[in-house]
């Protein structure tokens, strides 16, 4: 489990289910990065190189690194007391919603999300709080585990 969630568990709280960002959800960044990479490699092989290849390769690496950071810096977990989510690497956004305040979970999936099994989980809390956590792998399973836990928490002891 990620460091943020582990370091923020309170007394007698344990993780029931964790979710990860799907690598497939980052395919646009990998495709764009790959196209820039191919373009930069082609430019570096040109006989009259003017330094443009370095810029193109930097852009390619930036797209790929952005996707990797998004995957490894997002955490989502159901604990015995809360739903906790953290996104961001340098700038951090956190959501911690006590289970008694959870009103519902919504799963949104695009066509590619359905094909590659990723989507956004939207946590609805009392007071109209709606918190989307995007790009989660197998969001329907996470929603199902949360609903089962809310119905019968003793089965997870």
From TrEMBL:
Signal peptide: none annotated. Keywords: Membrane, Transmembrane, Transmembrane helix. It comes from the Bacteria. Residues 74-133 form the YdbS-like PH domain. It holds the Pfam family bPH_2. The keyword Translocase does not apply. InterPro entries: YdbS-like_PH. The chain crosses the membrane at residues 27-46, 52-72. PANTHER family: BLL0215 PROTEIN. This is YdbS-like PH domain-containing protein. It comes from Psychrobacter arcticus (strain DSM 17307 / VKM B-2377 / 273-4).
């Amino acid at each position: 489990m990620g460091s943020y969630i582990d370091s923020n568990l309170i007394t007698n709280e344990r993780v029931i289910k964790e979710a990860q960002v799907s690598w497939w959800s980052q395919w646009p960044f990998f495709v764009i990065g790959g196209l820039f990479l191919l373009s930069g490699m082609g430019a570096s092989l040109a006989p009259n190189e003017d330094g443009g290849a370095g810029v193109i390769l930097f852009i390619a690496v930036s797209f790929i690194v952005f996707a990797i950071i998004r995957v490894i810096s997002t955490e989502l977990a159901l604990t015995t007391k809360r739903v906790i989510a953290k996104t961001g690497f340098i700038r951090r956004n956190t959501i911690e919603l006590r289970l008694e305040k959870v009103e519902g979970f919504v799963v949104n999936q695009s066509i590619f999300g359905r094909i590659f099994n990723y989507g956004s989980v939207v946590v609805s809390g009392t007071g109209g709080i709606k918190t989307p956590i995007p790009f989660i792998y197998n969001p329907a399973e996470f929603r199902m585990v949360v609903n089962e836990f809310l119905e019968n928490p003793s089965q997870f002891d």
